[in-house]
Amino acid sequence: MAKDKAPKEYQQGKLLDIQEKKDKTTTYTTTKQKDGKTVTTPTTTEEKHYFITVQSGDLVYVGEYTPMFFGKPGDWIIGDPIDVRFDGNKMILRKPNGKELKTKIQKRIRAADYQPGK
């Protein structure tokens, strides 16, 4: 028998900012050639992180989202309303297509103390 899932309740928030950050990581692989010499090969990868800032009530939340593959957080416009809900240390946003985007809350700031860019 399937359990009835309660509908997910969203609050209306306001999208304040989306920042993209790129981290580069270099790993080194050492291999031994047939002639016995060792060769070390560096491989650099780039990982994108998005920091999404949303105001909900009297608080401003900054959530971090790291895409698994290619992708951006959503087709949102700064200043627009956004559906948001919270689950522990997660801020969950509803994208325009109805799917959810889960972020890890990095900061909570009182709206009165919020300064963009800091």
SSE layout and pairing:
Layout: E1 11-32, E2 38-56, E3 59-65, E4 81-87, E5 90-94, E6 100-110
Antiparallel strand pairs: 1-2, 1-4, 2-3, 3-6, 4-5, 5-6
Key terms for this structure?
elongated; single chain; mainly beta; 0% helix; six-stranded antiparallel β-barrel; 118 residues
Give a quick rundown of the structure.
With 118 residues, this protein is mostly beta strands. The chain has no helices and 6 strands. The chain has a 6-stranded antiparallel barrel.
Model description:
By secondary structure, the chain is mainly beta. It has one domain (11-25, 37-113). Helices cover 0% and strands 60% of the residues. It has no helices and 6 strands. The protein has a 6-stranded antiparallel beta barrel with strand order 1-2-3-6-5-4. The chain is elongated, with a radius of gyration of 20 Å. The N and C termini lie far apart (50 Å). 13% of the residues are buried. The mean pLDDT is 87.
